[in-house]
Amino acid sequence: MNVIGIIPARYASTRFPGKPLAMVQGRSMISRVYAQACKCTALSEVIVATDHPEIYAHVKSFGKVVMTDPAHPSGTDRCLEALSITNGGRFGPEDVVVNIQGDEPFISPLQIEMLIGLFAEKKCRIASLVKKIEKREELFSHNTVKVVVGKDKRALYFSRAPIPCYRDLPEELWIQKGLFYKHLGMYGYRVSTLEQIGKLPPGLLEQAESLEQLRWLENGFEIYVNETGLENLAIDTPEDLKRISG
Predict the structure, then answer these.
(1) What pLDDT does residue 88 have?
(2) CATH number of the domain to which 47 belongs
(3) Following DSSP, what letter does each residue of 1-40 receive, concatenated?
(4) Could you tell me the residue range of the domain that residue 224 belongs to?
(5) Which of 63, 25, 46 is nearest to 245 (CA)?
């Protein structure tokens, strides 16, 4: 099984324009993500998929990069175009694409490997990671995406609301009594599945929660998850960057 890691790197972030080029402890964010991904020996290849000539030129100085359409609404769409540009018949329908978040400069290669490990099962077509929620603030934050997981490691639903709802408990006791998971935004897809989901229109659930993965669930695609104990440090805003640098 061949596995390609693709790092979407969009320039025009609403909250942090030019984020991939931001300096994180002396190195650009995108160069840190790329270097961490390259440490994962389960990846056959790592490339950056960008929409901006400045990012393209910067990545070209140290790694592999392709230029993609600025109009893509999601990282999944950008990954699909990047795959079509670079494939040349090297990746078959059962091979795997890993969509690695470009704003996590300290991502662990072990997490990437954990995700890829799910594809040892042929039934796995889409994979992701979850982590146990341990803070009440995260549980009730709409910026933290929660996920309910079945016994077979299938994600049953994703939501910005705290799920499951412990109806008979006061909310301040939920985090103590219940088991909650948050979703970490790295995905893996079989090549054939990525091509299929790339053709799906947005669904009602996705539009309600603003979560792309609900489009896949709504259309019958299963998402399998592994649980990690490692925390991901995403940089969404300039304030996040200042906290890390400080």
Answers:
(1) 73
(2) 3.90.550.10
(3) --EEEEEEE-S--SSSTTGGGSEETTEEHHHHHHHHHHT-
(4) 3-245
(5) 25
Q: What are the two backbone dihedrals, phi and then psi, of residue 54, each rounded to the nearest 5 degrees?
A: -70, -40
For residue 241 the two structure tokens come to: 């960057």
Contact 203, 210 (CB under 8 A): no
Radius of gyration of the chain (CA): 18
- Torsions phi, psi of 225, nearest 5? -130, 150
Q: Which two tokens stand for residue 60?
A: 């070209």
Q: What's the token pair of residue 116?
A: 């890829």
Residue at 19: amino acid letter:
K
d(CA 236, CA 239): 8
Residue 26 falls in which region: left (phi positive, over 0), alpha (psi -120 to 50) or beta:
left
Give pLDDT tens digits for 10-41.
Answer: 998 777 788 999 999 899 999 999 999 999 99
Distance CA 174, CA 223 (A): 26
DSSP class of 154? B
Closest CA to 28 of 121, 105, 96: 105
Report the domain count for the chain: 1
Q: Which residues of 51-85 are buried (b: 16+ CB within 10 A; e: fewer)?
A: bbeebbebbeeebebbbbeeebeebbbbbbbbbee
Report yes or no: 224 and 154 within 8 Å, Cβ to Cβ.
yes
Q: Is the pLDDT of residue 187 over 80?
A: yes
* The residue type at 240: D
Q: Considering the chain, what percentage of its residues have pLDDT values greater than 70?
A: 99
